[in-house]
Amino acid sequence: MELVPRAATEQLADAVQDLRVTVVNGPRQAGKTTLLEMFQAAHGGTYRSLDGAEELAAALGDPVAYVDSGERPLIIDEVQRGGERLILAVKRSVDQNRTPGQFVLAGSTRFLTVPTLSESLAGRAAFVDLWPLSMTERTCGGEDFLQTGLGRPAELVGDTSPWTRDDYLELITTGSFPEVIGMRNNSSRRRWFNGYLRTIIERDITEFADIRHAQALPRLAAMIAARAGSPFVASDVGNGLSLPGETIRTYLKYLETVFLTASAPAWSTNLVTRLTKAPKVFLTDSGVAANLTNTDIDTLRRPGHRSLGALTETFVFAELLKLKSLTCDAFEIMHYRDRDGREIDFILETPDGRIYAIEVKASSSPHSDDTRHLTWLRDKLGDRFTAGIVLHLGTKGFSYGDRILSLPLSALWGHAPLRSDIVQQ
């Protein structure tokens, strides 16, 4: 039995060959340490983690000596704990020696996206995002949704998916963190999620931010989970939490810094007016979102459950985020909404301007009316519109004609089943 192969493994190896510094970013417990240890076993180097008190003291006490010692590549995990002086010591080292593959830095916060630090590594570093397990990884699919569902969407029409509604509910409520996938007990999952959120708030965020209303952070995360799919208006959210809108915007940045949330900005075009500009904000894992809304698979099985739509859209957003990172940002993820009541859950735009529009329906019985906004956008954009896809919880894929399709949710991973010969964690 083998672990799930991570698609980022090849990205990391390629980046180390060509760049002096490679940065592996991603949420805590996504599998970064396992990835780094496997990389070291295959390529050599020195692995250090600043989670250890002695290592952290050495890095803080003399960062120049710390980065100058050890076999290359020097792999530093939880690098954000070393602070700005450690990053500047890395910059000094690679400016003196331009050989590729000197450092692999990994962190559980977007520490290196701070302008002063990102600029110090500009031209010296490549970034590899590692999210929790994607369904493409868990099924070991040879082709992802970009290649089949988006590149050749008509090929999926007529396929019958082996995935059932109950299968989807299990995926949605479990989420994709490797450790949680291996759990079969709902109470164990709940304890894990509660501990995870506590660690992020009480340790990771407080290391870089002074929070006056720490108790509001889990409440803000829960509100985001419950309102997923709706435009995020800071003043409205602030009213619900009795906090100013500016405080909400600041706290949202903190949640994004530790990869707990991510945004889909509003998409706009000069072909359309009367747009709304508010982004949509999602938790980056549907299991975390389900836990925050006190939702489990048994409650979701009830027809018409109020959380199913938001959680399904959160699941799809998380899978799209992973596909984006695995394809080196081959598309941007946005959403569309206008003041005439038209909205489309996700707009994927490629660098050459092609548009893929996705509607997410938490139903096993999609209806032709679900495509009306996709059809409207197709007629507005003409040839630039590549495909409009309704993703649903049913088993059949079919066409509504002229680039408008309805596909089971499992089209995101080519309908492939979970592999029984690998450890699903």
Layout of secondary structure:
Blueprint: E1 2-3, H1 8-18, E2 21-25, H2 32-43, E3 46-49, H3 53-61, H4 63-68, E4 74-77, H5 83-96, E5 103-107, H6 115-120, E6 125-129, H7 135-138, H8 146-150, H9 165-174, H10 178-181, H11 186-208, H12 216-226, H13 234-241, H14 245-257, E7 261-264, E8 280-283, H15 286-292, H16 297-300, H17 308-326, E9 332-337, E10 343-349, E11 355-360, H18 372-381, E12 385-392, E13 398-401, E14 404-408, E15 422-423
Structure overview:
By secondary structure, this protein is an alpha/beta fold. It has 2 domains: 128 residues, P-loop containing nucleotide triphosphate hydrolases (Rossmann fold, 3-Layer(aba) Sandwich), CATH 3.40.50; 289 residues, no CATH class. It contains 18 helices and 15 strands. Helix 9 packs across helix 15. The longest helix is centred in the middle third of the chain and has 23 residues. It is globular, with a radius of gyration of 22 Å.
